[in-house]
User: What shape does this take?
Amino acid sequence: MPLQNRVSPYGTLFRTPGRGTLMGNRGGTIHNDAREIVRRYASRRWIACVLEFKGRWRPVMAPRRYTELFFLDEAVALAAGHRPCAECRRDRYNAFRRAWNAEHPPGAVAMDAVLHPARMDRHGRKVTWQSQLASLPNGTFIEFDAAPWLVWDDALALWTPEGYTRRIGRAAAGPVTVLTPRPIVECLSVGYEPMVHPSLDG
Assistant: This one.
């Protein structure tokens, strides 16, 4: 059975055979020795990493090691509340930091402090917010018809664990429920564009 280590745009962890195009973690170990998820996060440091870095290799969900999580793409990671890793994705982190500094205090610690209450409330529930669809930048996830859709150019693309499977026209106006945390949408609005899965072009 696949491990419960894939992340949805809602930030939930689920099982699926695929790994996705990015790996990440939530600040430490959130699984037990049986490789079962036992808590939502270990710290506020939620990051998104590359799948391979400097030839490093490790078994997934090893005992007492940080829990590896996997995302379809960066847009999903951002929607779940993860930011780029400052080590293995330094260029992307620097680009995100420049966008972040336009609206927020600088530094990774400050990012994590601002992002945590924007991604999850004190009861562990996903934080969502309302916005006009027309004002949302590329890379934002919204909820439509009880499903997560990616805003991209003049369309919305339906997320599935395997990729984006449907596209519909983007309405010119109207309030929607936004899944991507507000501080991250602010970064997208000033020019940070996330990497997306190849299926978006299909």
